[in-house]
Structures are given as structure tokens and as C-alpha cells.
Write a structure and sequence with these properties.
By secondary structure, the chain is mainly α. It has a domain of about 90 residues. About 85% of the residues lie in helices and about 0% in strands. It is rod-shaped, with a radius of gyration of 31 Å.
């Protein structure tokens, strides 16, 4: 029995079995860690994008409400609201929304959606529609 447990056999066993097993286990640990890092990077990217989307939507809503209160309401009181004025109010809301958003939001949304103008246009249309519906559904207050 003493013949089998010699420093040479321990060294040989270590060299032949243990070192390859450690390498094999290390490979899987590295793969696992890379996978988790990738998941975290994707989550951070998604969280950041969601934050930028929320900022942009708030900017659009603010711009639409602002233009509605300062421009559209005055034009409607004068009785001169037409297609041209609607287009002008749309453009004002878009310009205001873009200026509120800031560069980092615009860049992130451009990367995500490719066509930022189309995204902003559709969001403004949704916001205007929601405004109309909420105004029409409110009871008359004195």
C-alpha cells in the first residue's frame, strides 16, 4: 500500500486528473459568468431604453398639453382653427417635445427605433387623441 502512495504517484495523479478537471470546471465557470454578464448588460440596456422612452413620452405629453393650452385654445376661441392651424400646432408640439427631450434621449431612441421623427409623430397623434377623448368625456363644469 505504501508503494502506491508515493510523491511520484500523487504528482502524476495530480497532473493527469486534477489539472484537466480544474481546467474543465474553470471553462464552465467562465461560460456561466459571461452568460450572466451578458444578461445584466441586456437588462441595463433595456432599463436605460425604458427610462429614455418614458422621458420622451413625458416630453411629448407636456408639449402637446402646452401647445393645446397656449395656441390651440386661443385659435379655437377665435373660430379660425382649420387644417393649416392643426398642422402648425402639430409642428409646434413636435419642436417643443424635441427640445424638452435632450440629446441623449434622442440618440437612444434613434438607435432603438431608427426613425425618430415617425416615432415622435405617432406619439403626438396618440397624445392628441387621448387629450380629445379626456376632454370630451369630462362633464361640463361651472
Amino acid at each position: 500500500m505504501d508503494q502506491f502512495v508515493t510523491p511520484e504517484t500523487i504528482s502524476a495523479t495530480f497532473s493527469v486528473l486534477i489539472i484537466p478537471i480544474i481546467g474543465f470546471i474553470s471553462k464552465f465557470i467562465i461560460m456561466f459568468l459571461k452568460s450572466k454578464v451578458s444578461e445584466l448588460e441586456q437588462k441595463i440596456k433595456n432599463d436605460t431604453l425604458n427610462k429614455y422612452i418614458s422621458i420622451a413620452e413625458d416630453a411629448i405629453e407636456t408639449a402637446v398639453v402646452s401647445v393645446n393650452q397656449t395656441f390651440v385654445d386661443n385659435i379655437k376661441k377665435q373660430g379660425t382653427f382649420d387644417k393649416e392651424t392643426a398642422g402648425k400646432s402639430f409642428d409646434l408640439a413636435k419642436q417643443k417635445a424635441i427640445s424638452i427631450m435632450g440629446t441623449s434621449v434622442k440618440n437612444a431612441l434613434t438607435d432603438a427605433y431608427n426613425d425618430l421623427d415617425a416615432w415622435i409623430d405617432s406619439k403626438i397623434e396618440v397624445c392628441v387623441r387621448q387629450n380629445k377623448v379626456s376632454v370630451q368625456s369630462k362633464p361640463f363644469e361651472v
